[in-house]
């Protein structure tokens, strides 16, 4: 199975309003709730692609209960509402006393523009962190790959991802780190197999906005492979065996929410399938684009994915990353 | 006891952010949750003033559970965290299958300005409405006054308040109606003892923004007494025995959230205490002002209330309302 870790899970709420006007009152026309946090999004996509997936991290309080109820619905459906055979999604979240955070996306009906509000998350106690580590080590025993995703909740030390990476490496489980800021900086020093920053995150980490330079610097600091997401220009992969850029055939209109999580899912799937880098990258770009094109944020459109996959252009870069 | 009815209860969330900028992402710096909906706010103030209060209406789903948990905390504390003896607050909400709505207030830290998002509320089934009516009739048997507060959830017919007023009148329980729009228009035809519209609500009802004219028209349509709230200018009471205006001694700075609900609480308290109109109005104005001045939205500052009460200026208006 593939393990995804979401230490700061969330109940994602979406409020649709005619138009958001600050300092006025709004009638919400419709509300949706879904399990959230990057690792849960990655797991949902993996399960829909047919991969056995286990999610861990923390959940607690009334919002945690709602979150786990929604996950149970996904478990029952294999991560997809459609007729395509799907992998299982198993909830291995560790209970905590605090209340799982909410995130709120306020969507303007007229323009489709989104305003995002993210609660900070519950305070995690040292005993809860210890309980998580015991569970994590057990889960690593059955994992073919692990993804560490998103922000850290209050109470978790900033070097937490470095510790989780060391434990994964000790268990010989390949590890992908998808976070930002200080947790990313500390995490790459523990030598993760893969990081997937966007240009802002790379610039914050390395001081450079030039993708090749910044990726080389991130590799020098410890990341074995850097997959830099370039937005509409696709992704740039700096690996031990070469450097590739993969571009979508056209810029698709839609909602970019979840496109990065879909790319992570594709990279994990390609890793456990052992396919060559160019194919992994093509899958990541096609799945990202199919997520942007889907009507529901974070879902992907299977038809679009299959149509785009052979059209993604992957070019090897003449300048190889240097370690 | 005093009964308050809140058909569309809410879990009131407050998100504090540095500044709300549409179409960007925000880190929420702090989150608060409290039981909401006008009737629950009125009941909290009444309990803090020392009146036995029962709340009814609907609650359901995970947010309904959180709401009832917060109400249970209030029950245990008698509606106040302070050392002043307080009345009881009893939860007689009727369970429903749907999920109680949330309201979200987004507060800009810099300016204190608030942006409000109100979810529509759960669909109430005919069987749930029937169960409510059975419970409501029983509760009326022990009620000295009843307040019908706020909007109607989906599934409740627009004439619902008229029906509740007729049942209260049949049980000889004085009834205050605090709503707006079509539910107010339909409600006053059933001859409530008291309505408490603001100028916008009066104008929508009568077509006039002139308080005396609009109040007279609202009385002609069936309301025995009209207490028009004039914002910082206090309130205008058009009653069978005379017309009075009550003004606060000065305009207080603060958060007006809940000021109207505090006025309703004071009017109900004055009604069951049987005090003359000028004193009722003075209490309503002082309690509203003490709510504006309190640091937490919807709470009132007891010291401010007691200091303001003798300073409220109540003048009888030479033009009496005519029935």
Describe the structure.
- Two copies of one chain form a homodimer.
- With 323 residues, the first copy, chain A, is an alpha/beta fold.
- Chain A has one domain (2-8, 37-98, 120-316): Ribokinase (UDP-N-acetylmuramoyl-L-alanine:D-glutamate ligase), CATH 3.40.1190.20.
- Helices cover 37% and strands 25% of the residues of chain A.
- In chain A, the strands form two sheets. In chain A, strands 1, 5, 6, 7, 10, 11, 12, 13, 14, 15 and 16 form an eleven-stranded mixed beta sheet that branches. A four-stranded mixed beta sheet of chain A has the order 4-2-8-9.
- In chain A, α4 (160-170) packs parallel to α5 (181-188).
- The interface between A and B is medium-sized, with 31 and 31 residues.
- β9 (114-118) of chain A pairs parallel with β3 of chain B, so a sheet runs across the interface.
List descriptors:
homodimer; 323 residues; UDP-N-acetylmuramoyl-L-alanine:D-glutamate ligase; 16 strands; globular
Distance separating the two termini of chain A: 31 Å
CATH topology of chain A: UDP-N-acetylmuramoyl-L-alanine:D-glutamate ligase
Q: Supply the CATH architecture of chain A.
A: 3-Layer(aba) Sandwich
Instruction: Bin the strand percentage of chain A.
Output: 25-35%
**Biggest sheet features of chain A:** 11 strands, mixed
Q: Strand pairing plus helix content of chain A: what structural class?
A: alpha/beta
Q: What does the overall shape of chain A look like?
A: globular
Oligomer: homodimer
Computed Rg of chain A: 19 Å
Number of separate domains of chain A:
1
Order of helices and strands of chain A: EEEEHEHEEEEHEHEHEHHEEEHHHE
What is the helical fraction of chain A, as a range of percent?
25-40%
Give a count of the beta strands of chain A, DSSP E runs of length 2 or more: 16
- Greatest chain-chain interface? A-B, 31 and 31 residues
Uncertain residue segments of chain A: 81-85
Number of helices of chain A: 10
CATH superfamily of chain A: Ribokinase
Output mean pLDDT of chain A.
92
């Amino acid at each position: 199975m593939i393990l995804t870790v979401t230490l700061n899970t969330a109940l994602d709420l979406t409020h649709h309003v005619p138009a958001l006007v600050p300092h006025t009152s709004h009638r919400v026309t419709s509300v949706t709730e879904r399990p959230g946090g990057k690792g849960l999004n990655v797991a949902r996509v993996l399960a829909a692609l047919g991969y056995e997936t286990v999610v861990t991290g923390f959940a607690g309080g009334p919002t945690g209960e709602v979150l786990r109820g929604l996950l149970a619905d996904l478990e029952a459906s294999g991560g997809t509402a459609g007729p395509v055979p799907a992998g299982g999604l198993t909830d291995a979240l560790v209970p905590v006393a605090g209340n799982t955070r909410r995130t709120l996306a306020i969507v303007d009906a007229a323009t489709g523009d989104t305003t995002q509000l993210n609660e900070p998350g519950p305070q995690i106690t040292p005993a809860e962190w210890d309980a998580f580590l015991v569970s994590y080590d057990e889960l690593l025993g059955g994992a073919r790959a692990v993804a560490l995703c998103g922000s850290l909740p209050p109470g978790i030390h900033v070097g937490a991802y470095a510790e989780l990476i060391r434990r994964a490496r000790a268990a010989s489980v390949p590890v992908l780190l998808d976070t930002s800021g200080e947790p990313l900086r500390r995490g790459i020093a523990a030598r993760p197999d893969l990081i997937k920053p966007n240009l802002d995150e790379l610039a914050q980490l390395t001081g450079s906005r030039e993708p090749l330079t910044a990726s080389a610097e991130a590799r020098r600091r410890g990341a074995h492979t850097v997959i830099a997401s370039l937005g509409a220009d696709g992704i740039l992969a700096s690996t031990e065996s070469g450097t590739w850029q993969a571009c979508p055939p056209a810029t698709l209109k839609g909602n970019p929410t979840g496109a990065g999580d879909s790319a992570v899912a594709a990279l994990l799937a390609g890793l456990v399938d052992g396919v060559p880098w160019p194919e992994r990258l093509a899958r990541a770009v096609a799945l990202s684009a199919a997520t942007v094109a889907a009507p529901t944020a974070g879902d992907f459109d299977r038809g679009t994915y299959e149509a785009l996959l052979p059209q993604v252009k992957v070019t090897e870069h003449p300048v190889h990353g240097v370690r």
